[in-house]
Amino acid sequence: MDATKQKILLRKKILCERDLLSDAQRTIASRNISDQILELKSFKQSKVVAAYMSFGSEFETSTILSEALRLGKVVALPKIESTRHVISFLSWNGKAEELLPGRWGILEPDPARSDFVDSSRIDFLLVPGVAFTDQGCRLGYGGGYYDSVLSKLPESSATVAAAFSLQIVPEVPIEEHDLNVQIVISS
Length: 187
Description:
single chain; 187 residues; Rossmann fold; globular
C-alpha cells in the first residue's frame, strides 16, 4: 500500500479515536499538555508565538494563547489562503470578536483588524496534526499547509506539537515533502 493510502487510513483511525474522547478527558489532557508546553525554555524565551485555534476534538489551545498574550508575546494565528494553498499568519490580540470563521469553520483573525506576521519572526510554532511519533514525525490533515510553513521558518524557531496519548503512534507514513516537528508533548 502506498504512503498516501496509508495516511488516509491512519488519519481516519486516529480521528475516530480522538472524537471518542470525552470532554472531561480532553480538558484534563489539554491542561497537562499546556502545563508542559508553558515550561519549555523555547516557549518562555519566545517573542512571537504562532499557534492555532482549536477545532473539533483537537488539543485545546486556549491556555497557551492566553498565557502568551498575558506574557506580552506577539500571538499569530493562521489564515488559510485556499486559492494560493498557503497559510499566512496574522497577529491576534485575544479579542474573540476579531476572529472570523475560515476554511473548515476554524476561527481566524480578521485581516482587516490584524497585522501580517512574517514567518521569519516566528520563534515558537505550535503545529496541529492528527498523529505523531515520539521522534517528531507528523501526520497532518492532508493539505500540506504546515509542511510549507515548517520549511520557511528560521532554523532557530522551536516547532512543537501537542497530542493526546492516542495520537502517538510507532510510525507515520512519510513522503518526501513531509517535515517533522522538534518536540511532541503528549498526555
